[in-house]
Automatic annotation (TrEMBL), chains A, B, C, D, E, F, G, H, I, J:
Record-given protein name: Cyanate hydratase
Active site: 98, 101, 124
Organism per entry: Gigaspora margarita
Cyanate lyase C-terminal domain residues: 85-158
Stretches that traverse the bilayer: none
Gene name for this UniProt entry: cyn1
Length: 158, 158, 158, 158, 158, 158, 158, 158, 158, 158
């Protein structure tokens, strides 16, 4: 793992990554056992999501890490993730930059289309889900499909 | 329209927006007549896409703007859009910021999941489409669904 | 008005400010007549809120500006404000900087207290209201009281 | 705790956080025993406030940390906190970003309303308090209420 | 006057500068007639201070500009200066940069000395005055003396 | 001491701070014994000034640190401080920010007043002194007085 | 090796560099044995490329590092490089800055020429190769020739 | 043409672009007539190169613009282009960004390979040429080939 | 002249440049007549230096511009140049960037050498001159020689 | 030595600085023995220059450090310095800032003068030397003289 990113993860999360690697598990494998989507599971490993007690119980079995250890750092009532901040902005990695570029090029068109369809408001990034699918293009090429879905929040007037 | 953004659009695009407003057309209306998706149409209006001759012919009718005028600025073989740059970064508008936040919080998890599913590479932002749908949540709330689809490009080794 | 900010407002909003000044109206005066809070009214003048047809009807009378003129720019179904961007960040004006400083110094403590009280989530800045009150301190000094209230949005798990 | 933030806290503050976690205390619990507001207590833990001798005495009991240890780092006459700097700006965490967004979108309207109500001056961020309350919205939803109160300081002329 | 700075001043302030130049008045000259310090007068010309009705009356005579014109832009109850923002930061002009350098090099030592002398708090930049004097050095050289004085504001605990 | 600042001080300076704290000395106390101003002493502790052999001799006694140790790091002919860089810019701490704000708001007025009084040139930040005094305001309030004095350097023509 | 860059490489890559140095191998030497271009090999050493199992097998022999050690960190199905981020931007090193300068000065001309020759689209930086050659100038001087080649990706319309 | 870029070109260059468009000439067409490479010609149009008298003579004929007009602005002995500055950095347009990304990802590997091949020094960006070719990939795909060639400059020792 | 730079010069300075161009004068030509160095003259044209009455008298003759016009904008007792700010930083033009690069690469070595030779202090950039000479290298190549000379200012202790 | 800079030097360079300090050698002393200029020697110590085998041999004797140790890190054919990056930009130290200020204020004038004297091109920062001299001013003051000399590189046309 990239040492800059690694240094931004707490020790317990680094251990989770090591266990995942040594067991040769993908996020999809873990997600299936947890009953959660692979993207959410990856978010959990990167410290961007807060698991519930039940998730940690299962994770403890999947990764073979004592549950108490996981609970102390990820599950207490007094621990809540501080999100973002894993990498510099603008993003340097080409994969993540493409998301940034989409936001730059299509952000305003997407805003206008959503406003016309839904009214004055936003798509929530909190009450939100993200999924990844593999699809075939018309020329039989492999295509990545990302589905973002968030609650529409209309601006309040007061 | 926001004067800062307006100043970044060429005169012909400003005229397109005015015609759209006075005819009370949505991007969806125009898209239906053009045979193009509403998000792509909005991109065209914001100078982020290059139309073909046939698109301009139809647009000329839809917006009631002489075709030649449209062709000169948007359709010549010597004009190609310089994309991006419509707004400051990080984005200031809350709608667009949410896309930026998704990239910040879920960018690395999405990368990992795509890499695990597709191998070492990226989702193209060029051979790419974006769509917006209105869906209902399980609690009957209104939700925004954005579907991003791009060709998977594997890293070349040489 | 500061010329830098003025240049970021559309002509119709500049006219609203001029009418307000020549009629010596405060935002509170206008708010009372509109049936809206003064902070929301000020947001409207700064292009940070979208009025409804009924608001524009009343505003037309209050400011003595033809309603159609207001509707064309602020009220159509194809116009939605692009928010933010009125000033540089970090803010240069001492008043606005104090809000920025509060966010810097107390942002993390406020996050922790809200998380402990409400769980993992955020205070919405969209389904949100802001009010200003004048209160007396224990030493009889004049104090500014700002009340921010927003819907609590819990993080979705999927 | 997020390792980036942790690295910005002095060892004694890290110990305070650990004691709080192992005793499963909230900031509200500690505040009640200290006779202080929970937001101020959280500020103290994040090194953003300076306690008095009496506060440290009580804190020593609450957290079961020898008073002398607390006094040496947090209470001497030659130690004063250097505030701010706990996270990058613009803030990356969605919770804190919402405060930043409020400042961006409503900062200028709030300034104008305060100026109209109080004259030319600012709300102090030093002679200042912040409180958090849980309230119900008209649709029975849960809402976060933040109350910021600061002394009004008029600009001096000379 | 530097065109970049000029573009940030409102037309009435540009006119004040022109009148001052054509009448060959220094800020000290104007200050004497206004009964105000020269630094405050210069602040007023740069849009960084708000004059009272009586100041405008006198200024109208001094600069030979109709009072009503001054009042409309600088004196209404609905106009309040938005301060700062006249130049880029870090400052590019060597004079102003030296103030920035003093803040960089001596800012922390000044903070520590003030904290030790006054306790935990700050020097207000609002309830604040600045004066400039010409003094002689021990080697008979000419020295600039700047005197900054602001109310001490102790941090509130709550 | 704030761990971020601490990490920017050399080990010998960290030791000086510790000795000062354990002996409960203020910068004023040390200054009196050194025959130097307290602000200069604080600058020395923060690595912003270069002491002479004689200063180190006295400092060794005051802080009870072997002189040789001090000389090796702070006093050799091949060591000269690299100034600045102790904190991020714009400054995050409210105390230091106020100096930054004064520079922003009053920097240009101060420049103009100095130019009018002294001609085209600057106030040196090298041949420079800074002092802090406690004064009473007309309303009996406590006020901080900072006196900055620097040689006037006229621009050379060639 | 520059300590800032070194700290951004994982321990296994640091070891690769050490082995390369102690064996006095150039990237060209290694490339010849690997059957890969020297630029791609250098990218691999800097963590900017992902090797295949077969590459690691050969690398293990060339550098005399146990294959398993290389595989664990560089070759697993759950490790994919996060690219970029090795140095600050704008680049500080004069060599790399020249590439940045070429992009600044000739970026727009190159875009226009490619658009005219290929239509609306980009040169991929993923399906991409880079080579370096040593050539002689007409005046017999030594010249560096860099050949960048990437797939042309036309913008999709939808 | 993008209005932001247009505003950074002098009026004579804007006229050159208009003439080129109305005559439907590509940079390759003009280059052939000028006896110069198309990339250099595009650089000239974007104000990034200085033509000689002879170039202007031919350009005057090609574009049907009076030579004197061209000479005054582009050809005098007292005019020299100030290069760079046509767009924001990091670049926002996806085409130009790819060059930036190549520099980010492959900049250090390219440096190392050049150093190993040529010694300690750089590739000049001044004594430099850039060419674009269209080539076929092994899979018959269309590929962009960019050839950068610059004099090798070894670091001087003194 | 580059339109971005032109927009930062006052109208009188733009006129000076036009007169210089139409008269085909170099800065050296003007300098000879003014009795000033060419670099200082160029600084004057770029608004970075303040001329005296006598300089303006001569300049009026050299450029054939009425003296009063020059005096009003460049010579009054109430006008002083605000220096810097003519271009973005880091500089985009390759010529100016090389000065920036020298400062980056050799700045610290130059500081150390000056400190060792002169003691703790700086080279003034105010009591400062800059000259340019054309010299021959040992290989008969043409070399640029820049000579910077400034007063040494030792740090004051107080 | 400043800990921030120290952390950017490799261990062998830190050792060189220590040896230099304990032997009380200046860069001029070392330069004389090496037969190199003191500025180049200081560059070498700061990792900004690459020594040859012969330089290391002599340096080994001068500093009493085993030659092999020096050669391994500074002299191999596979080590080349990555220059720049020793300090933040804009520079924080007043000495280095003055060079930055000179570039800001006199950069464009110097460019114009060089262009007029040499034609369209730059002064190389690679085929470049820098020297420092101590001179007397006409008023007997001590002045720093810096002499920068670099090869003139004319822009290539192609």
């Amino acid at each position: 793992m990239n040492p800059t990113i690694k240094s931004k993860l707490s020790p317990i999360l680094q251990k989770c990554f090591e266990a995942k690697a040594s067991k040769k598990l993908t996020f999809a494998d873990i997600g299936k056992q947890l009953g959660k989507d692979e993207v959410w599971v990856a978010s959990l490993f990167y410290g961007q999501a807060k698991p519930e007690e039940a998730d940690l119980k299962k994770l403890s079995v999947i990764l073979d890490i004592p549950q108490q250890y996981l609970t102390t750092d990820l599950g207490t009532q007094t621990f809540f993730p501080t999100r973002g901040g894993l990498f510099e902005l603008p993003p340097r990695d080409p994969f993540i930059y493409r998301l940034y570029e989409i936001m730059q090029v299509y952000g305003l068109p997407l805003k206008e289309v959503v406003n016309e369809k839904f009214g004055d408001g936003i798509m929530s990034a909190i009450d939100f889900t993200a999924n990844v699918e593999k699809v075939k293009g018309s020329d039989d090429s492999t295509r990545v499909k990302m589905i973002f879905e968030g609650k529409f929040l209309p601006y309040k007037k007061w």
